[in-house]
Amino acid sequence: MTRGGRVKDQDGPERRCIVSGEVQPKGGLIRFVVGPGAALVPDIEGKLPGRGIYVSADRALIAQAAKKKLFARAAREPVTVPADLDALVHDLQTRRVIGLLALARKAGQAVAGYEKVKDWLRSEEAVVLIQATDGSERGKTKLKAPPGEDGFVGCLLAGEIGLAFGREHVIHAALAAGGLSARVVEEAAKLARLRGQDGGHCGATRED
């Protein structure tokens, strides 16, 4: 992952955004399909059957695609687009990241709480530091993210991280190496773009 949530592997599958016309790796795009009854469905997990229609992970572009009826043009048939599609995609992507983080916790690949995170960072078990956007900046600077472009995720609120750990609020969390951790980072980078955080707030190392 690069800054702004773009996928590093340029040899992977690429698709064209129907709004900007830009061709980019699938990891930076939201997939949509036309479901039963000609209803447009955001395919957040990228697993639904049907021909994919792709828009960059950008709420303004998603809203523009809906307003200008670009989904119908791409599908070559009339489609029913949900109201406030960009907000729906944002909410679904948020749930996706929280769900993956919860799975990582259950698999023993994630911990929460300042002391546990500090221990994981010290022992180099942590490969990703997660910190809440609404946490104290002074407190957050006491922990240094692991090196590398994928070493820091900072696009989630404390309440959202808390949901993944069964708590009300979590400011600090960490991920160990593993498939689930990589998926959390990738999906969080996409969420960061949807939240307009293209400056390395997700999927990139935080500068101290």
Automatic annotation (TrEMBL):
Pfam families attached to this UniProt entry: YlxR
Domain YlxR: residue ranges: 15-82
Alphabetical list of InterPro entries matching this protein: Ribosomal_eL30-like_sf (IPR029064), YlxR (IPR037465), YlxR-like_sf (IPR035931), YlxR_dom (IPR007393)
Gene3D superfamilies hit by this protein: 3.30.1330.30, YlxR-like
Superkingdom of source: Bacteria
CDD domains: YlxR (cd00279)
NCBIfam families reported in the protein's UniProt record: PRK09190.1
Protein name: RNA-binding protein
